[in-house]
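Need C-alpha cells for this chain, all 330 residues.
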Amino acid sequence: MPVFDTKHQRAAWLVAILGIILVIALSPYASGLLGVPVLYVAVAPLHERLMRRIKIRSVCSGIVIVAVLVGLVLPLAWMVTLLVGQAPSAANAIVKSPLLQRVGALRIGAFDIGPQLQRAGSEAVSFLAGGAFALLGTAARMTINLLLTIFGLFYLLMDPSSAWRSLRPFIPFSDANVDVLHARFGAVTKATIIGTGLAAVIQGVTMWLAFTVFGLPNGVFWGAVTMMFSMLPVVGVGLVWGPAAVVLFSDGRPGAAIGMALWGLISAALVDYLLRPYVSNRYAQTHPLITLVGAIAGVSYLGIIGLLIGPLALLYFFELLTMYRKEYLR
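Here are the C-alpha cells for all 330 residues:
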C-alpha cells in the first residue's frame, strides 16, 4: 500500500521524521525538560497562594523561582560538591582499613576466596569514588539541564493554562477521563516527590548521626551517599549501614556493630513501612517495586536525576495503561 500518495500521509511522515530527529538531539537534556512539569506540580500550590495575595503573576513566578533555587538547587550543589570533595579520602580510608586485609586471607575449605573478595571490594570503592568525579565531569550538561528546568518552570508558571490547551488535543481520551488522568498525574507526582524527598533527608541525617555516635569517619559524606541510595526503597540504605556494621565488627567492636545494624534497620523500617505508605495513601497508591525498578532504569539513562524521574515515568505509564483499558477495552 503506498504511503506517500496523499498530502496527509506526506505531512505525517515529515512530522514523524522531524520528531525523531528532535528526540535524538534533545535526549541529553531529557532530565532538564522532564524536570519542568515535575517541579511545576510541586510548586504550583505555593504559586497559587502567592497569587491570592500579590496578584501579579510575574512577581509570584519570580518568587517561586528564587525559592526553588534556595531550597533545592543550592542543597543539591552542596551535596555534589561534598561527594566530589570527600570521595577520595573516604575511598582511601576504606582501602587502607584492616577489613580488606582480613578479607584477603579468607578461605572456605580448599577455596581461597579472600583475594577475589578483596579485589571486588577495592573495585567497588574505586567505582564509588569514580562515580563522584563523574558528577563533576558532567557539570556542563547538568548546568544546561538545570537552566532548562528553571526557565521552563518560569514560563510554565506564567501561563500554565496555555500549555495545557496546547497539549490537550494530542491526548486521545475523552474529556472526563482526561480530567481524571490529569488529577492522577498530579497525585503520583506529589507522592513521589514528597515521599522520596522526606525519605532521603531523614535517612541521610540519621546515617550521619549513626556514624558520629559509633565513631566512624566521613559521617557527612556517607550521609550524603545515603540520601542518594535511600531513593531505592527497602535495599538502598542497607548498602551503607551494612558495610559500616561489618567494619565495626572487624575492628573488634561487636556492640557497636549490632547498634549500627539495629539503627539502620529501625530507621529503614520507619521510613519504608510508615513514612512512604503514609505519603502514598495521602496522595496516590504506589507500589515500592515500581519505585525500585523505575529508579534503577532511570539512573541508567538519566543519571542521578533518574532516581526520581524513572519511577515517575513508570507510574505515568501504568496510569496511561489503566486509562486506555477503561476507555477502549470495556
